[in-house]
Design brief:
heterodimer; A: about 400 residues; alpha/beta; formyl-coa transferase, domain 3; 2 domains; 6-stranded parallel beta sheet; 14 strands; about 40% helix; elongated; B: about 400 residues; Rossmann fold; 11 strands; about 15% strand
Chain lengths: ~400, ~400
């Protein structure tokens, strides 16, 4: 059998920024037909963020909603329709789309869709077995449900920011989308479980996910330590409780680093052998895990003296051949020349009608029978108005035109 | 009892430590029947890592293990023995899903490749979770959680806001990235369950932790080929997102769009400096973040995180306290949503656990204790597979189970 597992499943997305869009993008990778609802009054804000490009780029605010590279990466395989949901007629049309759909994905602030008349209860009236996922910073209940938040906020509320950084530095949450996208992945997971449940029972359900809760589930080990022992773990760079060496060491080159982790004496001997059995490696103070941890500072200094005279790829190769866990700290540049990722086809290209050829990352799961794959660029703004309103809802061209003139489809 | 979304799904777990167990935990917590195979004698590696209850190492009192293995059944088995191998294959025949995280070579040596296993169970879904996947030059590379983070480029992006590239890239203190890999693998695995229901087709799922984590930074990574920018932990001086110290800790501040900026200005009771031309629009603000923070800092030092948080949020500024793990564990918002749940365990007692990264209304998360080492040997070997009491005793003596 071939084909994609979610073919025949239709999802409507009222999403913005990263979390909601990635949730439905994950479904679209597996073949779901995702209809993204936006209005020129309120498009997904990611459409407006661009860059001047080059090694030292500046953020620019775009004036064309079809030129954002970031938007492309978060909205692959989807369709886009325009509806100004402040107008009752547009809300009715959104409900009509929901009526022929299986899943709703939204990440507005709690209450926003309710006020527009698109709450779970309202959708359930037209589509009783709908699976409706709301993702918000803190969930749709509780005293702080209406507070605003983006990834840096829920990363901080859930505990991740405080435990990231140098032991002697400020809390320093990571730059990048993973705080969002891990939430999107958890959302997509919960939607599939609800689909399986619907297949068995015929029942839909409401899913009320909280980004802050996802983050606290990721730092579960530190929370368990607090719950068990009252210990408050905090940031400590790359260090481990027990093992040393356990850090990144400078290599030859500019901002090049190798991560090395050694967890037992066998690995230690292999490491010492691989670097040519220098005298210091034979010293008593490094001969068991306890001693290595005790003398970690000195150990780190000595290891750095060796790594600095090799490139990161050399160090990785030498140590891995000896059975030592050493992987260099990849920069985004490294990924695009790396032989391993090339062989695995981690990246592909899409042709975007406005921007041109763009590199995108393939979905990270390799399924042998029902692949997750990229079939098209992110939709142009309103690109599928005719398909959705015409073909799907059976409206005539005149009706569509009239609603455009009324700025309902807008 | 509420309904279980994954009721009737049978999962065999041959995994240890974090990503693999996290993946099958997510299925177990929603009602799948998970049988976890642990190595005879020693058990899952997580049993030997803290945090331990009272800081006293004990294989049944590791917080790592207890959390990652809720709602599972546990058996001990040595698949390297002839009988152990035979039992493993019997369990593969029973399972809908096999989740494993062994080095690819080890599975090949045991004869447990997907091609071999599907001869026994053609409908099997097999998910392999390894640092670099099953193909490519790095497939046999060894990687601990530290190496996984850095191999995925996540380290290179932290600590965000670094002023000094002479210092190393870092990971967070927790095993959060390995946990994220478990969530990613669980999503792909249950996607494969869907066609099984209609067509009964099994398949193989190759999850590389490196790629699972890279995908979470895909927007930043692809800036390089598309726009020439190398994403790094060095602060991008044009993003209006910053940490600022205040009276009793640190605060996260976002002032990107006009509404957020107005909220921030209102939070501080509209000081004069905010009227300067350089703060007039988003682009200008992003270019002058240094000046903005310099002005915010003295005000922030006069206020507590809670004052700033509630006043700011009420006035439209998306600001939040940087919470310690203790504060996160005691956050009222979490409590009111019943995010933490107490579970009884025969050896570790009653402990509070973070529940789940989802809140499904009809098929909610339910907590059940992690298994003791070999707790379900009898149930599985005798009731499920039909071995006699004598057989079980003999297999135990022989070190098979």
């Amino acid at each position: 059998m071939t084909g994609r597992v979610l073919e025949g499943i239709r999802a409507v997305e009222f999403g913005q920024f990263y979390v909601g869009p990635y949730t439905s993008e994950a479904l679209a990778y597996f073949g779901a037909e995702v209809i993204k609802v936006e209005s020129i009054r309120r498009p997904d804000p990611t459409r407006w963020f661009g860059s001047t490009g080059g090694p030292d780029p500046k953020i620019i605010i775009l004036t064309d909603p079809n030129k954002s590279v970031g938007f492309n990466e978060l909205n692959l395989n989807k369709l886009s329709v325009n509806l100004d949901l402040t107008k009752p007629k547009a809300v009715e049309l959104a409900k009509k789309i929901a009526e022929v759909s299986d899943v709703i994905v939204e990440n507005n602030r709690p209450g926003v869709l309710d006020r527009l008349g698109l709450s779970y209860e309202a959708i359930r009236e037209v589509k009783p077995d709908i699976i409706y996922l709301s993702a918000s910073c803190r969930g749709s209940t509780g005293p702080e449900r209406n507070y605003a938040g983006f990834a840096p906020i829920f990363g901080s509320l859930g505990g991740l920011s405080e435990i990231t950084g140098y032991a002697d530095g400020p809390p320093a949450p990571p730059i990048g989308g993973r705080t969002d996208i891990v939430c999107g992945t958890a959302n997509a997971f919960s939607i599939i479980t609800a689909l399986i449940h619907r297949e068995m029972t015929g029942k839909g359900q409401y899913i009320d996910n909280s980004d802050s809760e996802v983050i606290s589930c990721l730092v579960w080990d530190t929370i368990m330590d607090y719950n068990l022992n009252g210990r408050i773990q905090t940031r400590r760079g790359n260090k481990d409780d027990i093992f040393a060496p356990h850090d990144c060491y400078r290599c030859k080159g500019e901002d090049d680093w190798i991560s090395i982790a050694i967890s037992n004496d066998e690995e230690w001997r292999a490491f010492a052998g691989a670097i040519g059995n220098p005298d210091w490696a034979k010293e008593e103070r490094f001969q068991d895990a306890y001693l290595r941890k005790k003398n970690e500072e000195e150990l780190d200094r000595l290891i750095s003296q060796w790594t600095i005279s090799h490139t990161k790829y050399e160090v990785m190769d030498i140590l891995q051949k000896a059975g030592v866990a050493a992987v260099h700290s990849f920069s985004s540049k490294d990924f695009f020349s790396d032989p391993h990722l090339k062989e695995r086809g981690a990246f592909t290209e899409v042709e975007h009608p406005v921007i041109g050829r763009l590199t995108v990352m393939n979905p990270p799961w390799k399924l042998s029978a029902t692949p997750a794959e990229i079939v098209r660029h992110a939709p142009l703004f309103g690109e599928h108005n005719n398909y959705v309103f015409g073909e799907l809802l059976g409206m005539s061209q005149e009706e569509i035109k009239a609603l455009m003139d009324e700025q309902v489809i807008y | 009892m509420s309904e279980k979304a994954l009721e009737g799904t049978k999962v065999l777990e041959y995994a240890s430590f974090i990503s693999g167990p996290y993946c099958s935990k997510l299925l177990a917590d929603l009602g799948a029947e998970v049988i976890k195979i642990e190595r005879t004698g020693v058990g899952d590696e997580a049993r030997r890592r803290g945090p331990f209850l009272g800081d006293i190492p004990h294989p049944e009192r590791s917080g790592l293990f207890l959390y990652l293995n809720t709602n599972k059944k546990g058996i001990t088995l040595d698949p390297e023995t002839q009988t152990g191998r035979k039992i493993f294959l019997e369990l593969v025949r029973w399972a809908d899903i096999l989740i494993e995280d062994k080095p690819p070579k080890e599975m090949e040596e045991l004869g447990f490749t997907y091609d071999k296993l599907k001869e026994i169970n053609p409908q099997l879904i097999m998910t392999s979770i390894t640092p670099f996947g099953q193909t490519g030059p790095y497939r046999d590379y060894k990687a601990y959680p530290l190496n996984v983070v850095h191999g995925a480029g996540s380290g290179y992006l932290a600590p965000g806001g670094s002023q000094n590239l002479e210092r190393e890239p870092v990971k967070s203190t927790s095993f959060s990235d390995d946990a994220a890999c478990g969530i990613s693998a669980a999503f792909a695995t249950i996607c494969a369950l869907l066609p099984r229901w209609s067509t009964g087709v099994g398949q193989y799922i190759d999850v590389s932790k490196q790629e699972a984590l890279m995908a979470m930074d895909q927007v930043e990574l692809c800036q390089y080929p598309n726009e020439g920018k190398v994403a790094s932990r060095k602060v991008d001086p044009r993003m209006a997102i910053r940490v600022t110290p205040c009276k009793d800790g640190d605060m996260m501040i976002i002032a990107m769009d006009d509404r957020q900026w107005k909220g921030l200005v209102s939070m501080m009771d509209e000081p004069e400096w905010t009227k300067d031309e350089i703060f007039k629009d988003i682009l200008s603000r992003m270019q002058h973040m240094g000046e903005m923070l310099k002005n915010v800092a003295p005000w922030a030092m006069q206020h507590t995180r809670d004052e700033m948080y509630h006043t700011g949020q009420e006035r439209g500024a998306p600001v939040a306290p940087i919470r310690s793990i203790e504060e996160a564990a005691n956050w009222q918002q979490f409590k009111e949503r019943d995010f933490f749940v107490e579970i009884d365990h025969p050896k570790a007692g009653r402990i509070s656990y973070p529940s789940a990264p989802y809140k499904l209304s009809k098929t909610p998360w339910e907590g059940g204790a992690a298994p003791l080492l070999g707790q379900h040997n009898e149930e599985v070997y005798s009731t499920l597979l039909g071995y006699s009491k004598e057989d079980i005793v003999m297999m135990r003596e022989a070190g098979v189970i």
